[in-house]
Predict the structure.
Amino acid sequence: MQGMETSFSLLGMLSSMNWVAKAVVLVLALMSIWSLTIAIERLWRFQRAKRESLEIALRVTPMLKQHKLEEAIALTSDKKYRHSHLARVLRAGLTEFQYESSQSLPEDFDLVAAGQRAIERETLMTTAEFKKGLGNLATISTTAPFVGLFGTVAGIIHAFQGMAISGSGGLGAVSAGIAEALVTTAFGLFVAIPAVWLYNYFLNKVDRFQVEMSNSSSQLIDYFIKNEARMRAGTRTPMAAR
């Protein structure tokens, strides 16, 4: 009984696997480490973005209400807010609006549309950056079970080859080999399931960030429209005139 327990222990089965199954286990271990590394990096990145964006929103709003355009641009350009998605979007729109406002442009030039295009470009770039690494998680979550299944198939083939060489028959002759082979399938699921959870979690986070950028962009466009109306009415604010 003690020998049976030893042969069917996890370490015992891993040590008795053929080289194909061991290679599969090694690949799955690397995939697990890779997904964990991505998850830690994205968690850190998203937490920084959330914290910095909240601070930006609280500080920029009163500046825009007082038409302190240059101060708002300086704040969103501060390096301590480099991880903030709201800072990037607001900076792109405000910088474009300030630049176009200072140029000698035709009367029919749409300042609001120019600012909106700058915001949309920065939003797309920021969203793409947030999704960095998520494709790898999706790949791991979909391929890990098949990698484990490949190891299982190779292990079962190895078990039946051993039975053919020994000349013994019956389920007892191959049960140990099949148990060893199924370890790779279990390991593949162990790697894939957390990767699926993490992928969906981070994707929901990105969707939330997109909503926040969309809301901030909408508020900024409203600011542009009101400011342009004042400019066309001959009441350009000193900060916007710069």
Notes: Residues 171-232 form the longest helix (62 residues). Confidence is low (pLDDT under 50) at residues 1-6, 235-242. The chain has nine helices and no strands.
